[in-house]
From TrEMBL:
Swiss-Prot/TrEMBL GO biological process terms: pentose metabolic process
InterPro entries: ATPase_NBD, Carb_kinase_FGGY, FGGY_C, FGGY_N, FGGY_RbtK-like
GO molecular function: D-ribulokinase activity
Gene Ontology cellular-component annotations: cytoplasm
Keywords: Kinase, Transferase
Organism listed in the record: Microbiota decussata
Family according to the record: Belongs to the FGGY kinase family.
Transmembrane segments: none
Protein name listed in UniProt: FGGY carbohydrate kinase domain-containing protein
Residue ranges occupied by any Carbohydrate kinase FGGY C-terminal domain in the UniProt entry: 307-517
Positions of the Carbohydrate kinase FGGY N-terminal domain: 9-281
Length: 575
């Protein structure tokens, strides 16, 4: 099939941790249909791996299923955009997978974003105090790509020798789709230490082009022991970059089009990391009364918003007109999400994953899961209803107060922001021998609140260092949980706006494609046209609720301080 310019639907593809999803949107940003396909994953200790072959097959299956559900053909699709987790892909010169696994299994050529095998390499890299670290909150996380690359070089010599390309997953997807090896400013800047502001003088959002990579820091790569990547003008990790939404190659190759069930030549935009796509898909979703009229004021209004992309983990995305360095928070990244603005990115490494871990491993979880299924509701909706019933039963002043005896520090997978402490651990205070349904409901509530206290810590920290956040927007799986969102509004004290289109990451990916097809002059124009607000959650006006959460927040902060103290005591004892 050949691509025709009369097509009017936008396809967004999002590869998450557990599945690949595809969504088809109309010209108003409304989701027509979506489909998903599960992904294989291997977990062995700190090593978490996937297969790019499996991922591409899942992308194709989800795309074909979405088209079938929407009753559309490839000729109806005007463009394609990709978003994905910031996982690391290794391929050889012939594009075949190169193993990144101790097992030697060639299928396992993707180091998943949440893999923490490179903690020691991250610590060593950070000890050099390179200037590029200023744009990563002062320290690289083991979830970023340089530590993972160094780990492979030091532990898998053969893989290091034969790998021809190291790519962020979303860049590999666009490469697989188009054959164009141009990397996105989003991935390279946010996860690879590329200095995007090296291109400030080349900025032209209305006529972008792939640019020679001039933002790599040779000294950094040589200093940390990866100087061989400098060879060939960084050919293995990106010798050309482009702004998100830039049209890549000649669109879909014939092979990719056939596999996806689309048309050869369909435009494909330079990619975004999934959280950043969520930001693009939601940040303009504010009620009309909140929108400023003048262009300058509109840009300033964007800088008062923070997007929470809440899924397995949570990313906290905020933009500013000037670069603001915030200790322990990633960025500022120039044009990594919204062109011409500096992105600041906080994060919590385990949020949805933490709730699943605590709830699904509880002794009563199977019983509750069966009950929820019989009522055709989620397990979490059942827990929300249980909490309301408990509050009525004991005449609690408000549901949130049911957590008064249980306090949680949610750093079960380290603290990404604002403490930048990957060695931080989770803590629970207030456990008893009770293992009832009510006990699980209370633990669940306390954990939800602890995640919200973590977001409050990030927001307060960012505002103390120069940002002006006063409005939150939320998207992702956890945003569908009304208790989760209301607790965030009450605890942080800001309204939380949900977008009309709840699949914001898919929409963000679709927006990239729409821009690549020249449906809109700029990414900002596409955002304004395709974003729309939905429900707004306002903070409780009850002063007792605020007083309660202020007290719990102080306990939350004290838990980490106690942990650091305990760590020191044990270190001294063993030293």
């Amino acid at each position: 099939m050949a691509f025709t310019s009369s097509a009017s639907l936008y396809l967004g593809i999002d590869v998450g941790t557990g599945s690949a999803r595809a969504g088809i949107f109309d010209e108003h940003g409304k989701l027509l249909k979506s489909a998903s396909s599960p992904l294989q994953i291997w977990k062995e200790g700190n090593c978490i791996e996937q297969s790019s072959t499996d991922i591409w097959l899942a992308v194709c299956a989800a795309t074909r299923a979405a088209c079938q559900l929407a009753n559309v053909s490839g000729e109806d699709i005007a463009s394609v955009g990709f978003a994905a987790t910031c996982s690391l892909v290794a391929v050889g010169e012939d594009d075949s997978p190169v193993t990144v696994s101790w097992s030697g299994d060639a299928r396992r050529n993707v180091i998943v974003w949440m893999d923490h095998r490179a903690v020691e390499q991250a610590e060593r890299i950070n000890s050099y105090n390179s200037p590029v670290l200023q744009h990563a909150g002062g320290a690289l996380s083991p979830e970023m790509q340089p530590p993972k690359l160094l780990w492979v070089k030091e532990n898998l010599n053969e893989s290091w020798a034969v790998a021809f390309r190291w790519m962020d997953l979303s860049d590999w997807l666009t490469y697989r789709a188009t054959g164009d090896d141009t990397r996105s400013l989003c991935t390279t800047v946010c996860k690879w230490t590329y200095l995007g502001h090296a291109h400030m003088q080349q900025m032209n959002t209305k006529n972008t082009k792939a640019m020679d990579a001039c933002g790599w820091d040779d000294v950094f790569w040589q200093e940390i022991g990866l100087g061989d990547l400098v060879e060939g003008h960084y050919a293995k990790i990106g010798k050309s970059v482009a702004f998100p939404g830039h049209p890549l190659g000649a669109g879909l190759t014939g092979t990719a089009a056939q596999e996806l069930g689309l048309c050869e030549g369909t435009p494909v935009g330079a990619s975004l990391i999934d959280a950043h796509a969520g930001g693009i898909g939601v940040i303009e979703s504010v009620p009309s009364s909140n929108i400023k009229s003048q262009e300058e004021e509109k840009m300033e209004a964007l800088c008062h918003r923070m997007v929470l992309v809440c899924g397995t983990s949570t990313c906290h995305m905020a933009v500013a007109q000037n670069k603001v360095f915030i200790p322990g928070v990633w960025g500022p990244f120039w044009s990594a999400m919204v062109p011409e603005l500096w992105l600041t990115e906080g994060g919590q490494s385990a949020t949805g994953a933490l709730l699943d871990h605590l709830v699904e491993n509880h002794v009563v979880a199977p019983l509750l899961a069966n009950r929820a299924a019989s009522q055709n509701i989620s397990l979490y909706e059942l827990l929300n209803r249980t909490l309301e019933s408990m509050a009525r039963e004991i005449q609690a002043p408000f549901v949130a107060s049911l957590s008064k005896d249980v306090h949680v520090l949610p750093d079960f997978h380290g603290n990404r922001s604002p403490l930048a402490d990957p060695s931080a651990k989770g803590m629970i205070s207030g456990l008893t021998l009770d293992s009832s349904e009510k006990q699980l409901a209370g633990l669940y509530l306390s954990t939800v609140q602890s995640i919200a206290y973590g977001t409050r810590h990030i927001v307060e920290h960012c505002n103390a260092h120069g940002l002006k956040i006063d409005t939150l927007l939320a998207c992702g799986g956890l945003s569908k949980n009304s208790l989760y969102i209301q607790e965030h509004a009450d605890i942080i004290g800001f309204p939380v706006i949900l977008p009309r289109e709840r699949e914001s990451v898919l929409l963000g990916a679709a927006i990239l494609g729409a821009v690549s097809a020249k449906m809109y002059s700029t990414l900002q124009d596409a955002m304004k046209a395709l974003n729309a607000p939905g429900q707004v959650f306002y903070p409780s006006q009850d002063p007792k609720v605020k007083k309660y959460h202020d007290a719990k927040y102080r306990i939350f902060r004290a838990l980490y301080e106690q942990q650091v103290s305990f760590r020191s005591l044990i270190s001294d004892a063993l030293g």
